[in-house]
Amino acid sequence: MTTAPHTDPATTSAPFAVPATRAPGCPFDPAPAVDRARQEAPVTRATLWDGSPVWLVTRHQDVRAVLGDPRFSADANRPGFPFLTAGARVLAEDTTFSFIRKDDPEHARLRRMLTADFMIKKVEAMRPQVQEITDDLLDRMTDGRTSADLVTEFALPLPSLVICLLLGVPYEDHAFFQERSRVLLTLRSTPDEVRTSQNELLDYLTRLAAKKRKEPDDGIISRLVARGELSDEAIAGMGRLLLIAGHETTANMTALGTLALLRNPSQLELLRTEPSLIKGAVEELLRYLTIIHNGVPRTATEDVTVGGTTVRAGEGVLCTLNAANRDEAVFPGGDALDVTRDARLHVAFGFGIHQCLGQPLARIEMQIALETLLRRLPDLHLAIPFEEVPFRHDMGIYGVHALPVGW
Amino acid sequence: MRVTVDQDKCCGAGSCVLSAPDVFDQRDEDGIVVLLDARPRAELHEAVREAAAVCPAAAIALEEATERV
């Protein structure tokens, strides 16, 4: 007697759709389908929003191998590039000068115009200024009140103020650029919506660059103008990238990190009693939460074997940073938050030549924000039931839309 | 231990300076790696190994001394 071959749904390599959905009640964990792929079929087939196939690369060592390999291209204009959303193609158009979607040498040429501004000693020197902004925001948030939305009053304005200072963008325009940024990062935004918001943002920054040409200051935009190597449009494109990457990421890590600590009271207590743990705790929160949660796209430029699977030239891959950061081979017990863990091998900032340019700044912002918040508000608590926290499942950068807290 | 760095590969992420500030620095003009000590003393070796492991651009190469038996 013959029977049809049995396929266990848990082990089948049948493609599933990405971005995959998180399990109900597990908002800090990667989607079960991605987690299962890492354990059972670390390089596996998935399908994108438009039905096109993509390789999902999930293990820590494979993610590092792909992102560190020049045979995998970040060039979004290369055929086969796996766009995560319908609108993502617009974000990478040539007019945007987005070097995160370019390969070397053009990527290196543009990136190296900015690396000095984010190097360790430069950023370390900003600690007093970041501390002052942090204290000022907390003063205002707590003045005569016992509850507030931590996102709008603290987590979002803090990095927004800092990146505005660095770039030379007037902070009073924050409602304008935060709204455009929201549209660009919403997974469901249509290409037209993305294009409109993007053009408004680029027009704004082009005008700002032109203004700096006449009235120079000490900000990055003004200094890019002074170099004389880039058009105002190109400077606007670089500014757009820095402005969005500079505030959305840290803002979400700060709010989500606070929530993760509130949900893990023993870890919170450890950090309160031993504030010197803060640097390691921030690395662990970066690992555990990995807010770039939908994968980093690349295209193979030749046949490459990844984790025993051959990826053919022209095929797209998505490196799931969040799954890699839970890889038991590197982070034993990785599904638990442990602020005493050595998490420094995490790939929350990506890996390879495109690894986050602003990571030194993100680190000090998070260290100062969380240390100050825990020190100044010893009774900090969630002001709504955990089940009602609005998580950013719908966004390219994960986090919470709001975080009502009391103290 | 002998340390070499490849400034052409470096992407200026600064991870090496965080791991081993006595051995690595960044150039003022563009944040690219500068090697301060090509033969770091033994107590720095662990930090240097970490710096090489976290370097996103594989710009740090280590030659470990062969142990005599």
From TrEMBL, chain A:
Keywords: Heme, Iron, Metal-binding, Monooxygenase, Oxidoreductase. Residues 1-14 have a biased composition (Polar residues). Signal peptide: none annotated. SUPFAM superfamilies: Cytochrome P450. Residues 1-28 are annotated as: Disordered. The keyword Heme applies. It holds the Pfam family p450. It comes from the Bacteria. The keyword Ion transport does not apply. Belongs to the cytochrome P450 family. This is Cytochrome P450. It comes from Streptomyces catenulae.
UniProtKB/TrEMBL annotation, chain B:
PROSITE patterns: 4FE4S_FER_2. Residues 1-29 form the 4Fe-4S ferredoxin-type domain. Gene3D superfamilies: 3.30.70.20. It comes from the Bacteria. InterPro entries: 3Fe4S_ferredoxin (IPR001080), 4Fe4S_Fe-S-bd (IPR017896), Fe-S_cluster_ET (IPR051269). It holds the Pfam family Fer4_13. Its cofactor is [3Fe-4S] cluster. SUPFAM superfamilies: 4Fe-4S ferredoxins. Keywords: 3Fe-4S, Electron transport, Iron, Iron-sulfur, Metal-binding, Transport. PANTHER family: FERREDOXIN. Ferredoxins are iron-sulfur proteins that transfer electrons in a wide variety of metabolic reactions. This is Ferredoxin.
